[in-house]
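Can you give me the bound-state structure? Components:
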Amino acid sequence: MSLVRVHNFSISLDGFGTGDGQSAEAPFGHAGEVLHEWMFATRFWYEMTGKSGGSAGLDDAFARQHGPGIGAEIMGAGKFGPPGWHKDPDWKGWWGPNPPFHTPTFVLTHHPRPSIEMEGGTTYHFIDASPAKALETAREAADGQDVRLGGGPTMIREFVAAGLVDHMHVVVVPILLGRGERLWDGLEDKEKDFAVEAVSSPSGVTHLTFTRTES
Amino acid sequence: MSLVRVHNFSISLDGFGTGDGQSAEAPFGHAGEVLHEWMFATRFWYEMTGKSGGSAGLDDAFARQHGPGIGAEIMGAGKFGPPGWHKDPDWKGWWGPNPPFHTPTFVLTHHPRPSIEMEGGTTYHFIDASPAKALETAREAADGQDVRLGGGPTMIREFVAAGLVDHMHVVVVPILLGRGERLWDGLEDKEKDFAVEAVSSPSGVTHLTFTRTES
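Here's the bound-state model for the whole set.
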């Protein structure tokens, strides 16, 4: 059974998954990197960026669930580039020549373009589709493996609202961003489809896992 | 030093401290009692309601910080009664003849009325005042002890925004209410005035404590 999974999705105490004012210089807007500092400190991140070191505790255990078993990713347009990237025919994403996805990666956009093959197994495909239709496409590409939803908050919210998410790992960072894009808007009672666990980490963040209980 | 403290203030994952549609039958609106079930299960609550039993773990340890050292409470109008209570001259609050405050209790309202002395040490006073002015009044009544802010979310938000809170205990319940009154709105960066701790409980809730670090 191919599952739909969310990993390492970080939000502020007040629920923002990105800050206000996303731009080429500020992928997370005014939030900067503060939502992901917990992850940058893990061995998972050190290894991924070719360094040695990093923490091997709870945060690392969660962080490294990101890769195994994943056969494709779907990401929102804002995770691929700043507003207006579709006007730049040479834009190849925020993630460098060897992106950390290593699978077919479907970018949701109203401006599809030809696919781009990157190093390390990532191929970007650009699709203008509903959550259900995008998932159908990604699942086919995943070839029996799971599909990861990469964010941002808007696309995750839409997939949760559509009842398409099986497993979701959300990390609550103890900051108040005040503005940006909220993860939880319009999801009243949606937690009832899941078993929810919360576990706080010595780093200060709290890991929430949502595991679907309905079939 | 007389501190300003918040205890057992419960919010949903999406940040709502009360649900939508507060009324005489539904003090927390559509949220019902679900925000406070963690507390109803504690020995603290059992004792307060004259029963024996209840859990003696983490939730209880936090819950029973509510009383000790408190010399006065300030509460918002919505914690005293449903919308329109000021039109009923006989309304004496939602909390029965022996309310769980046991101190002078200042109700913030645009419709002040004469004070009401209840059993058990609670006297309700009704004041139309800014957070700073209300605190001045309550602090005088507290006679050197601490002042508790009783909620709801609007009044706590206002006191935090005004920099008046020294210690705040917020309990995050893993539900998505979707609508109601949010605690965190308009408090960008306010966490920076505090040391923040998060600890998740086996009951499923996460206790957040904010301890002021600036003087």
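A couple of observations. Residues 4-84+97-212 of chain B form a domain with the Dihydrofolate Reductase, subunit A fold (CATH 3.40.430.10). Residues 131-142 of chain B form the longest helix (12 residues).
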